[in-house]
Design goal:
There is one protein chain. This protein is α+β, with helices and mostly antiparallel strands. The chain has 2 domains: 246 residues, no CATH class; 72 residues, no CATH class. It contains 10 helices and 13 strands. Strand 3 and strand 4 form a beta hairpin. Helix 3 crosses helix 4 and helix 4 packs across helix 8. Ligand for members of the frizzled family of seven transmembrane receptors. InterPro entries: Wnt, Wnt_C, Wnt_CS. One of its GO terms (cellular component) is extracellular space. GO terms for molecular function: cytokine activity; frizzled binding.
Length: 424
C-alpha cells in the first residue's frame, strides 16, 4: 500500500557535496598529464576497428582527446534524456566504446540522438585540445590567425594617435615603443618614421571612435576544421554507405558536428593603454557543450521517421505517418521539411518500460518520477502504469563536472536525502 505523502516539515532535505575524481577515460588512476602512447591509449580500449587502431597508433594524443569528447557526450546524453524512459545509462560501459552497444546499432530515435551527440563531442573536444597546444598534429586554426607583428604595429599606431589627440604630442626624450623604434623603421609607413608625424595622422574624434570599435582576427581560434575531420574519419564509414543504418549513422553524425560549427562564437580581448579598448583581437571558440546538447535535444523531439528501404541513392524519404512517439514529423503545414540538418531514424522505438538486453533497455523500475508532472517524467509515463512508491531516499550523483586535459573528469559528488516517488 502506498503511504501518504509526508508533510514538508517531516521531509527534510540535506545536501552536501565533496570533490571526487572520476577517471572514466582510459582507466587512469591518477590525475595529471599522462604519457599518451599507442600502448597507453590504443591497447586499453576494446573494440577498435582496424582503421581506428591505425589512426590511434599514428595519433594517440588526438585519440585520447576524442575519447574524452565521447565521455563528455555520454554525460550530456544522460542529462538531456534524464526525463525519458531510455536515459543513455546503458551506453556507459567500462573499457569499451559506446558505439558497440545494441541501441546504437539500431534505427531508433534514441540511436539518432546518441550518434549525433557523440560525433559532436569528438569534434568539440579535439578542436578545443588543438587550441590548448596539447596535440602534436594541430594547433590554432590557421585561417584566421593574424600575424602578431601586425597586431602590435596597429596597437602602436593607435597609441600614437591617442597621444596626439590628447595634445601631448610625442615626448622626444621618451623612447618610442619597440614597434616604432628605428629597428622597425623600414617596415613602417612614411608618416610614422619621424618623431613629428604629419597632421594627416591626427584623426578626428569620430574617426578614432570608429577605430576603437574595430577588431582583427588574433588569439587562438579553436581548430574545428581539424576536429571535424578527425571526428568524421574516426566515426564515419569510408566509401559510400551500403545500407540504411550506415546512411543514417553518417547523416546524424554530420548533423551533430554541424551544430558545433553553427554555434561557434567570437571571443575578444581589448588592447590599449590604461585599460582602454583601442582595438580588439578576436578568435573563434567552440560553444558550451550544454548548448550543443540542448539543440540536439530539440532535434531529437522533432526527428524525422524515414523509410527503411535499402536504396543507396543518398536520399531519405520521410514516411507520411511521421509522428512516432507523438512528436512532429517530416511534414508541417503541408510542406516537406528539409532533412539535411534534422535527425533521422527508421525504426520505431520500443517502450523501454522493462529490462530487455536485446534493445539495451534497462527498464524504468526504481527510476525517480514526478507525480505532479504531465510530461515524460511523470509517474504515469515513466512508470508505464505500474504505479510508484513514496520513499525516503538518499542518492549520490556526479554533478558540476569539469573535464580536464587529459583524460580525467573532476566532479562533485552530490548527495541528496529527500522523499521521492519511485517507479515500482
Amino acid at each position: 500500500m502506498t503511504p501518504p505523502t509526508p508533510p514538508p516539515s517531516s521531509a527534510p532535505t540535506f545536501f552536501f557535496s565533496c570533490r571526487v575524481l572520476c577517471n572514466d577515460i582510459l582507466s587512469l588512476k591518477v590525475a595529471g598529464d599522462p604519457v599518451l602512447t599507442p600502448h597507453s591509449v590504443c591497447l586499453r580500449l576494446a573494440g577498435l576497428s582496424k582503421r581506428q587502431m591505425r589512426m590511434c597508433v599514428r595519433n594517440p594524443d588526438v585519440t585520447a582527446s576524442a575519447l574524452q569528447g565521447i565521455q563528455v557526450a555520454l554525460h550530456e546524453c544522460q542529462h538531456q534524456l534524464r526525463d525519458q524512459r531510455w536515459n543513455c545509462s546503458s551506453l556507459e560501459g567500462f573499457g569499451k566504446l559506446p558505439h558497440h552497444s545494441t541501441v546504437l546499432n539500431r534505427g531508433f530515435r534514441e540511436s539518432a540522438f546518441s550518434l549525433a551527440l557523440l560525433a559532436a563531442g569528438v569534434a568539440h573536444s579535439v578542436a578545443s585540445a588543438c587550441s590548448m597546444g596539447k596535440l602534436r598534429g594541430c594547433g590554432c586554426e590557421a585561417k584566421r590567425r593574424q600575424d602578431d607583428d601586425k597586431i602590435r604595429l596597429k596597437l602602436s599606431q593607435l597609441q600614437l594617435q591617442a597621444l596626439q589627440k590628447g595634445g601631448a604630442g610625442l615626448d622626444v626624450a621618451r623612447p618610442l615603443p619597440p614597434e616604432l623604434s628605428a629597428h622597425h623603421a623600414g617596415h613602417l609607413p612614411a608618416g610614422l618614421r619621424s618623431g613629428h608625424p604629419p597632421a594627416s595622422l591626427k584623426p578626428a574624434s569620430d574617426q578614432l571612435s570608429s577605430m576603437q570599435d574595430t577588431w582583427e582576427w588574433g588569439g587562438c581560434s579553436h581548430n574545428l576544421r581539424f576536429g571535424d575531420r578527425f571526428s568524421r574519419d574516426w566515426l564515419d564509414s569510408r566509401g559510400s554507405p551500403r545500407d540504411i543504418h550506415a546512411r543514417m549513422r553518417i547523416h546524424n553524425n554530420r548533423v551533430g558536428r554541424q551544430i558545433v560549427t553553427d554555434n561557434m562564437t567570437r571571443k575578444c580581448k581589448c588592447h590599449g593603454t590604461s585599460g582602454s579598448c583601442q582595438f580588439k583581437t578576436c578568435w573563434h571558440v567552440s560553444p558550451e557543450f550544454r548548448l550543443v546538447g540542448s539543440l540536439l535535444k530539440q532535434k531529437f523531439l522533432s526527428a524525422i521517421f524515414v523509410n527503411s528501404q535499402n536504396k543507396n541513392n543518398g536520399v531519405f524519404n520521410p514516411r507520411t505517418e511521421n509522428s512516432a512517439g507523438g512528436s512532429p514529423g517530416g511534414f508541417g503545414g503541408g510542406r516537406r521539411r528539409s532533412m539535411s540538418r534534422e535527425l533521422v531514424f527508421f525504426e520505431k522505438s520500443p517502450d523501454f518500460c522493462e529490462h530487455d538486453a536485446s534493445v539495451d533497455s534497462p527498464g524504468t523500475q526504481g527510476r525517480i518520477c514526478n507525480k505532479t508532472s504531465y510530461s515524460t517524467d511523470s509517474c504515469g509515463s515513466l512508470c508505464c502504469g505500474r504505479g510508484h512508491n513514496i520513499l525516503k531516499h538518499t542518492r549520490s550523483e556526479r554533478c558540476n563536472c569539469r573535464f580536464h586535459w587529459c583524460c580525467y573528469v573532476l566532479c562533485e559528488e552530490c548527495r541528496l536525502t529527500e522523499w521521492v516517488n519511485v517507479c515500482k
